[in-house]
Each structure stands twice: as C-alpha cells, then as structure tokens.
Amino acid sequence: MKKIAVLTSGGDAPGMNTAIRAVVRRGIFKGLDVYGVQNGYKGLIAGDFIPMDFKSVGDILHRGGTILQSTRCDEFRTEEGQKKGIEQLENAGISGLVVIGGDGSFQGATKLNAQGVAAIGIPGTIDNDISGTDYTIGFDTAVNTALDAIDKIRDTASSHERTYVIEVMGRNAGDIALWAGMCAGAESIIIPEAIDDIEDVIDRVQRGAKRGKKHSIIVVAEGVGKGDEIGKVIEERTGFETKVTILGHFQRGGSPSAYDRMMSTQMGAKAVDLLVDGIAGVMVGLRNGQLVHTPFEEALQYKRTLDMSTYDLARSLSI
Ligand code: F6P
Q1: pLDDT (mean) for 144-169
Q2: Alpha helix (H) ranges present in 170-307?
Q3: ipTM of this model?
Q4: Which of 72, 102, 178, 279 has the most CB atoms lying inside 10 A of its own CB?
C-alpha cells in the first residue's frame, strides 16, 4: 500500500480534526502518501482529493468541526454511487481509506471494503451510539458543552425559581442526556432507552420544591422528541413556571477536550497502523480502556446498549 485517503462523514464532532492530523502524520511517518477527501462521500464520488503533507494539518488539532468538511450523502447509498467512488480511488491510485464518522458512514465503508478498497473506520459522533466501541470521538466535549450550558441555566433558574426542561442532542441515544444530567444533578433524565413516567417527573419536581429547592432541572434527550410537551405538562400540573431550552447544534462545535484529543490521536494512528499491517474492513474502537478493532459487520450488527446502572444511580440521587 502506497497511497491512502481520509474523509469525514455524517454529523461533525469535536476531535475530527485531531483524528485527521493523526492519520496524515502517522501515514507520512509510515512512508505513505496521504490524501484528504473533501465533503465526505460526496467528494469521493467527485474525486475531490487533496494531497496532505505534514504542514497541511498543522494548527488544527484544537479546532472544532472538520477541515475536510462533512456531508450526509444519499447517492453513496446506491451501487452506482459506490462504483463512482471506487473508480475515483482507482484512478488516483489510492488503495486505503480511513472513514471518520458514525454508523451510517460505516455502512458505506463496508460496501467499499467488500469491493476491494481497504477501508477502516474511526467512530466519530457526539452521540456515543456505536456498538463495537465504548467511546466515540466528540462525546466528551459535547457532554462538557451541554453541562456548561445547564450549569448556567441553573443559575438563572434558581434566581427566578423556575423549572427548566433542557433538551440535549442524541438522535437515538441517551448518553449525552445521561452524562450531562447526572453531572448537573438533574431532577429527572429522560432518555430513549428509559422514558420516565411523566408522573414520576412531576413528583420529583414537587418533592424538590417541598424540600425548599429553588429550581428544578429536567434533561431530556432529543431522541425522546417531547421537550415542549413535557414542559407544558409540568407547568400545568405543578403550577411552577417552566421553560424549555433546546441546546441543539451548539453541542457539536468547540475545541475538543483533552480526552477527545487523546482518543482521536490514538484511534487515527491505530487506523493507519492497521492498514499498513494489511488489516481492513474494521472499525477502530475502545473496549475496557484498550484500543481494539472490530469487523464492520459485527460493529453494525448490534444496537449499542447503554449502561443502565448509571441511570439508576442518577435516579437514586435525585429523589
Ligand atoms: O449524530 C449526531 C447528531 O448531532 C445527533 O445528535 C443529531 O440528531 C443529528 O446529528 C443532527 O444532524 P444534522 O446536523 O444533520 O441536523
């Protein structure tokens, strides 16, 4: 293998730039020519490749977003789209591809791998929702961003004796809500994996008020899809002024945390080392604190499960 490429795909996540830097520099260190693919799979289909040298990834490891841009590309789901992408790689003499993204992105990488392109995945999504790894790049930063926002909302909630329903990201996964909610001491955390009974949520708000609490915080994951509704019911039933704040894409940006920088760097370098060792069709991941690699089919086969003991603990501390 002489030439490899790297792309970012799906929703961006803090740490993607750090991972790009690691792939490029580790690749050069291992004697490879490294290319960046602009705009994810869309750029692959268009043959939008740029040669990357050591300097091209200087001064990016601390920046949010992705210097290669990212897209969600429907055309690449089709055989026709995949064929075009493979032709572009062949024409450029590129035989290895590192895909940084979520499970949708790995569906595409699986198809490429089956057709002779040595593809490796790096889990990059703030949602932390990929099976085959305990961690996805961007999660730690997103949780800290959400937590910072909740702490600030709590200040004003307390001054005005209000209840706040705060919706955080997480399409189908409650990880951000669970971590941010636990660390913020939320009264209730509502996640797709365990939708709390609204009566219980109301109960907790009322019990808190009886104890003299000046505010209540309820964190709800986007995937539950009911932030406004929950806010309305709580206000009607408790009589407490209740506001709803949706944090949204704010959580996707920002400088990656130290943990995200470390994970992105380790996973980026590992992806290159695997390619050099002739291993492909796998996703790099973290399992019990160790870097591992899992075949795409296996990583995509199972729905990732959330550790519910953390959820139970959070509930037991906010009674
Ligand atoms: O997958 C990451 C994520 O931020 C989800 O939490 C969210 O549902 C989705 O992406 C939003 O996607 P988009 O940026 O395309 O609106």
Answers
A1: 98
A2: 175-184, 198-210, 227-238, 258-276, 296-301
A3: 0.97
A4: 178
